[in-house]
């Protein structure tokens, strides 16, 4: 049987704006309630007591893996980390059957996988909430943490200009989903071969926000409140494309010269892991406008709030 109060967290555009806002408020409250505590201390209100969470990884991870694990423990729950390779996921049996089986053992599933279809099949057949921990197509937990981070430093993101440099990838896609839901404008600058999926751009535009696709990085960052980039080669990209991608993306490197064209108080973000001196220089990553480690920390707080929302606790 399924818990009627449960919700999946599959993508930012699939979660109602009021729910997204309440998740961010809850994340900020949980974060401030823990100020000064040791990392392993339990929350005063351990909302996941008696709950068992499975974290499934079909790709490498540092932040997602550790932040979900620590978050569950802080909330008093139990957690297991599973590697897709060691499971019967989609090879020994259908993903639908894995979903049915896991739903008899655990209360919540987080999965990082390749094809979005695998995530959706799992969610369709699980009777417990499923959280998207990154697919080839999106990375919603990251952008919830990024918005939490932006608002901590600069206040409401509504009406601000976010500029993305580089590959129109899965992390960009979640920014596009978020633009429509949170009401910020988004500019993409990169080579035409690495443009974002038209569907995501159209969706954001249909919600009344401005989404621009430009080729000139300087024009793109003009007036930006937030400048974001990501690795030039994602985990699902073939290594054979590496050289071509590097050649095409080099003009979009975020360096101090480029940042000087954004607003003077523009923040810099990168979801990490980063290749220093490729997509961004260390001068920017470690500079005064960079909030990359706040973003990493906020994965923890945002995901704790996402898990509570999924379970309705
Ligand atoms: N940003 C992010 O998701 O990092 P990991 O791949 O280390 O989880
Ligand atoms: N775009 C990157 C993000 C890693 C967190 C990837 O998919 O590999």
UniProtKB/TrEMBL annotation:
Domain spans labelled Aspartate/ornithine carbamoyltransferase carbamoyl-P binding: 8-152
Protein name: Ornithine carbamoyltransferase
SUPFAM superfamilies: Aspartate/ornithine carbamoyltransferase
Pathway assignment: Amino-acid biosynthesis; L-arginine biosynthesis; L-arginine from L-ornithine and carbamoyl phosphate: step 1/3
Lineage, broadest ranks: Bacteria, Pseudomonadati, Pseudomonadota, Alphaproteobacteria, Rhodobacterales
GO biological process terms on file: citrulline biosynthetic process; L-arginine biosynthetic process via ornithine
Location in or out of the cell: Cytoplasm
Annotated positions binding carbamoyl phosphate: 61-64, 88, 112, 139-142, 271-272, 299
Keywords: Cytoplasm, Transferase
Function (record text): Reversibly catalyzes the transfer of the carbamoyl group from carbamoyl phosphate (CP) to the N(epsilon) atom of ornithine (ORN) to produce L-citrulline.
GO molecular function per UniProt: amino acid binding; ornithine carbamoyltransferase activity
